[in-house]
Design goal:
about 90 residues; mainly beta; Immunoglobulin-like; 4-stranded antiparallel beta sheet; 3-stranded antiparallel beta sheet; about 0% helix; globular
């Protein structure tokens, strides 16, 4: 596992290994991680302010993120896996 802020060659994850839908969403966002184990999900606004940080213990092949109470707009989601980090953009309607 890499140290916070240091990205090595082993931290490169295929962005398509994780899918999020529906995108845009009006509420619950489903994250399909397939074979990858998600360790933490973080949600940021476009100013870089962290909106949500959720460590995960389950090894489920999918997770749900409830965005119902968030304002409409564009958010950035960072998904930490045992193989590295995946960044995605999500639109909340």
């Amino acid at each position: 596992m890499a140290h916070q802020g240091i990205i090595g060659i082993n931290d490169i994850v295929n962005e398509n290994a994780i899918t999020i839908f529906p995108n845009p969403t009006t509420g619950k966002l489903r994250i399909e991680n397939g074979e990858l184990k998600i360790e933490k999900i973080e949600l940021f606004d476009l100013a870089g302010k962290i909106i949500l940080s959720h460590p995960l213990i389950t090894s489920s092949s999918h997770q749900e993120l409830d965005m119902t109470n968030l304002s409409a707009g564009i958010y950035l989601i960072t998904i930490h896996t045992e193989k590295g980090i995946v960044h995605k953009k999500v639109v909340k309607e």
